Structures are given as C-alpha cells and as structure tokens.
Amino acid sequence: MTIITRIPPSPTGLMHIGTARTALYNWLFARRHNGKMLFRIEDTDRERYAPEYVDSIKDGLTWLGLDWDGDVVSQFDRRDRHAEVALEMVKAGKAYYCYCTPEELETMREKAKAEGRVTFYDRRWRDADPATAPKDIKPVVRIKAPLDGNSVVHDKVQGDVTVANEQLDDFIILRSDGTPTYMLAVVVDDHDMGVTHVIRGDDHLNNTFRQNIIYTAMGWDVPVYAHLPLILGPDGAKLSKRHGATGVKEYEKMGYLPEAMRNYLLRLGWSHGDDEIISTEQAIEWFDLDHIGQSAARFDFAKLENVNAHYIKLADNPRLVDLVTPFLIERGYTVDDTGRARLLAGMDELKNRAKTIVQIADEGAFYVKTVPFDFDEKAKANLDKAILQTLKDTLSGITEFNATNIEDACKTVANDLREGKLGKVAMPLRAALTGTTVSPSVFHAAELLGKSEVLQRLDHSLT
C-alpha cells in the first residue's frame, strides 16, 4: 500500500503556524514511507475565498521546503462529484431529503431548549413518505446517522475515542441549492484522492465521527487518523497574534531560516528521545505517529531563536549574504559588489553572534554604508574627537593594515591618552566606523573595510 497524506488548507487567510506544523508532519510521514503528500485547497467558502491567500499558502509551503505531489486540487471544482455521492446515498437509503423550512428548524430548536433536550433536528423527514413532500420547497439532503450504540475513532495520537451515537445528528450533506457541505466534500475528496492517513488538528476530532458515517454509508475504507494537539502561546492560551507572528511567512521577515523552522515545528509536539537539533534527513528517517504527544505544545520564541542560531552557524556564507541583502535594501542601503564582498568576508564573525538574519543585518549594515552616514545616539555620545584624531594620525601610518597592527595602534593610543584602557579607544573607533556601538571585533572590521575607507570614516566622524 502506498501511504498518501494530504494538506487541505482553507484560503481564507494567511497560512497559520499550526497549519505549517500539520503540513510538516504530513510531509515527513509521506516521505519516510516513500509515499505521497497531496495538496488540496478547501475553497468552498466563496465569500471568504481570495486567490492571494492560495498564493500565500503555496509560498509558505515552498519557503518551508515542503513540496507536494501532483497538481493542487480545488475542492470547489469538485462540487458536482460531491453532489453525485450525496444522491447515491439517497438512492441507497443511507441519506434522505429534508423539507424543513428555516422557521420550522428554529421552532424545533426552541422547543428542545425549553424541554432541556439537545437541539438536534428531530429527524421528522427521515422515514417520511416522499409523496408527502411539499412541491414549493427545495430540500436539503441529510445523512442517516446511527440511532443507538457507540461510535469509536481509533486515533494514533489520542487513542480510542468513543461517542454515544445519540450525540450524532442527521447532519446536512447537500444544501438546498445543490452545494455540498464541508463534511461531505472532505470525505469524498479524501476517498477519491486515495488518502490513507489523515493527520490534522484535534479541533477536527468531533468532525471525524460524522465523517465516518459517510465512509460507512458508501462502503469506503476509513483512513488512519492522527489528531494533533493545539499549539499554545507561552502563557498557555491559544496561539494568536497577541503572542507574536502567527503567519508562516512572517517568520521569514523576522529573520528565521526555513530549516530552523522545520526543526522547531517538528519538536513542537513530537520527540525523538532528548534530541533537540534534528536535521531534515534525520526527521524523514525517524518520524512516526507514535511519538506525537497528546498534550498541547507551547510556542517558545527563545527556543526558536536558539535553534535558529544553530542553523545560522551552519549556513553557507554566500547564502547568508543573499538572505541578508533584502533586509539591508529595505533599510535604505545600497548593496554593491564592494559591500557584498565585505559582508562575505565578515560573515563568519557576524553569524557566530547572531540569532536571526535581522540581527546580521543590524550588526553588518556598516559594511555596506558609504560616507556620509548617520550615527545613532549612543554612537554620537562616544565620538571623542581627541581620540579619533589621534587614531586617524596613528592608523594612517600603518603599512600592513591588518587586525593585529590595528589593535596594536589602538593600544598605543590608549596608553598615551586613556591610561592603557583599550575599551576607551575601541569604542570611539567602533562608533566612527559603524555609526553604532554594536558590531563584531572592531579591529577585524577595520581590516575588512580597508585603510582608505577607515580613514575616510574617521574624517567623517570628525566633521
């Protein structure tokens, strides 16, 4: 049997971090078993549907490095097939036409409330004579749910979950205008696409009992289920915008690497012993459904930053230059060949200090700056003119302009002007060269900038 999973997001908003984790688990499970992960857009809600959200979901999956097999399937385009299945069930006596008006349904609900009963539809058309059907009402189609006993969902994460059938209603599968409901569309699509494993959020667990009624009515094989617990914010509440970014592409803008996000999302609900850093290759080899936890996971931005820092250190320097360049351009800098060369030369030190690409942009921006540039407030406070003038005179005399000789020159100035305190000289130099008070080793930075550029920046700081 070929393992087939699916990722079926609704294009009614940006791709949520929970959807990203679900996609990752589906992708890993399929790849581990040499199976397929299919991609279906559940776009039947036409009022909230927007093509740009489809593009956003595709972009999110692509950024995460999660590919899918075959073409993207539109659920909306399959609505005729869904209706066909509903009518098959009517013919087989597994579903029926219901002619209740909205007013009748409301009266039914109010009566049940008043009597302290569940407010389900009372099944009055379940076994009614079709000859009594009113001619002026377009009916809906309802499934015939079991009336007694229990239903069990065998879930790979939640275990066996049982519901009394009296809690299941004869829900609508086809609306009066002939369009399918979500319950019907999902089951028909999963069956027709050959889905063997449904891995999704546990907010769908209640739906599973109803969807299984359709599988049984059609005589179709029920897939293996694995319902994932929620992702919570650090405070234990459901993850939302108030906790920070929830859309996947926002994390790219925040400077996270896709491989770091894959690693972090993998561990956000699944474990392999005490391993925290797990490569994608290892994840494909190790991933299973048995080690998904039942408890909700808490999103921890500090942990994500630590994982990201690890992958930044492993990343190729030219790739990091490419990644950091858009951030610098966004800040108004021009990144020419000279600036790229300096960034590349200084990347080892930059990436060993950084937790995000944004941090690399902030601390490496001085490599692409050109005179004149602005100084931030802290840098301005450190522009000691006497020290900077002496530094300029001293550094101009260096023949071999390397970090060691630059540091020695600064030590000489410190001994002459600041009682040997090197920091009292290094900080003004850093401020003059970078426009800030945060940077990698200022002596190494000065070497990479080159003698001519350093002297030009010192001149600028003295104006």
TrEMBL record:
Q: Where is this motif: 'KMSKS' region?
A: 238-242
Give the reaction(s) catalysed: tRNA(Glu) + L-glutamate + ATP = L-glutamyl-tRNA(Glu) + AMP + diphosphate
Aminoacyl-tRNA synthetase class I anticodon-binding domain location: 319-461
Q: Write out the coiled-coil annotation as residue ranges.
A: none
The UniProt record lists the Glutamyl/glutaminyl-tRNA synthetase class Ib catalytic domain at: 3-305
Main role? Catalyzes the attachment of glutamate to tRNA(Glu) in a two-step reaction: glutamate is first activated by ATP to form Glu-AMP and then transferred to the acceptor end of tRNA(Glu).
UniProt name for this protein: Glutamate--tRNA ligase
Q: Which organism encodes this protein?
A: Micavibrio aeruginosavorus (strain ARL-13)
